[in-house]
Amino acid sequence: MEFNGTFELEDTTVDEVWLALSDPVMIENALPGCQFLVPVEDEDVDFDALREEHGDRDVDPTSDPEVIANRAFEEGQTYATVIGISIGPVNPTFETVVTIDHREQPEMKASGEGSAGDSSFEMNAWMDLDETDDGVEVDWRAEAEVFGRIASMGQRVINPAANQVVKRFFSSVQSEIRDREIADSEAMDAEGDGTAETEESNDGGIVDRILGRSRSN
């Protein structure tokens, strides 16, 4: 199955959107039905242990660039999440692992798989950001193989459910950006009256770390 679409985020910039989408806590808060989203060492995940450790956690959002840099998504890192979703007459809760395969502004690619009782899926997903006159256009695409009971419902049932999740997610992203007032990269570079160069030499560059940029040699 293939899914794709475009979502417009108004009155914002590519840097601001990328910063928000770099923060696993923001994703966790914005993704409907998400119980937690945490990095794991490998794909052999003990979800019961993760539920016990993270299921009731309450992590406050932040606009502090250094905090975001320290917990930002990393290329090659695997993350575990538990997501509940309504698909037709059923409400499965998927235990899911996702790996960030590529991450460099303005593009990100991820792959993953999840299972929920008698249903499972495998997927690859892509996202690209483009500046527009009114804000940012997010182009997204996903290819998925679905198995079990969910697959038997067919694409006519699955597509509307997936599109609804995506719509709610990006609407929440828009709200999170406004609420948190995440500074754009230019403002972060200027923060501290010229200390950004020192930060880059001593700490790998907060801005570069968040934006997923490779440092030049």
Explain this structure.
This is Carbon monoxide dehydrogenase subunit G. InterPro entries: CO_DH_gsu, START-like_dom_sf. By secondary structure, this protein is α+β, with helices and mostly antiparallel strands. It has a single domain, classed as Alpha-D-Glucose-1,6-Bisphosphate, Chain A, domain 4 (2-Layer Sandwich). Helix content is 39%, strand content 33%. It has nine helices and seven strands. The chain has a seven-stranded antiparallel beta sheet, with helices on both faces. A hairpin with a 2-residue loop joins strand 5 and strand 6. Helix 1 packs across helix 6 and helix 2 crosses helix 6. The N and C termini lie far apart (42 Å). About 8% of the residues have low confidence.
Summarize the structure.
The chain is of the alpha+beta class.
Order of helices and strands: EHHEHHEEEEEHHHHH
Query: So, the CATH homologous superfamily?
Result: START domain
CATH class type: Alpha Beta
Helix percentage: 25-40%
Note the beta-strand portion: 25-35%
CATH architecture name: 2-Layer Sandwich
Query: What class do helices, strands and sheet pairing give?
Result: alpha+beta
With helices defined by DSSP (H or I, 4 residues minimum), what is the helix count? 9
Distance between the termini: 42 Å
Q: Sum up the overall morphology in one term.
A: globular
CATH topology: Alpha-D-Glucose-1,6-Bisphosphate, Chain A, domain 4
User: Strand order, biggest sheet?
Assistant: 1-7-6-5-4-3-2
Total count of strands: 7
Number of domains: 1
- Low-confidence sequence ranges: 182-188, 195-204
> How confident overall, as mean pLDDT?
84
User: Radius of gyration, Cα only, in angstroms?
Assistant: 18 Å
Main sheet: strands, sense, barrel: 7 strands, antiparallel
